[in-house]
Specification:
Structural class: alpha+beta
Radius of gyration: 18 Å
Largest sheet: 5 strands, mixed
Strand content: 15-25%
Length: about 170
Amino acid sequence: MADVDHVGWAGRSAVRVVPPARPRKLAKVPFVELADGRLQGVVSSGSDIERVYVSSITSGTHAYHCSTNNNRPCGGLRGTPCKHLEALADEAIVQYGIDQVARYVRADVAEDATSGAELLAGLDARHEPTPAAVVFSRFLRHLSYLEVPGTTTPSPELHWFPATGAGR
């Protein structure tokens, strides 16, 4: 009887993995998440391979910000969201679907909306600086998972990933 209870607990403790709405290409936007009350992520620079931008849109207030990972403001922020924010919104829609992204940021979008530009158009947005360090450090932590050697034994760094087949 104890074994049955343990199996039930183990099954309930696994986190369900939700597959992306569509496969994403990671070169332009390697990291996107709906977390900390924001749509946030890292967007590669179009002009400098060594530069990335940390972009975010706050849920509810629709405050947006974009800066380099060392907090230099994006030159494209001129009273409207920049191309990095549009790329972030595009990839969030690919990752999570337009309905989930719009619901998370509390945006009114047209029923037939499919792009980041349409999502941004549905925002009552204003620029509000936010620090890039938290989002960038989360991105770096996710990158570090790529260097964890493959193993079949439990790994404390990845304890929150479900066991094979648990998300089916």
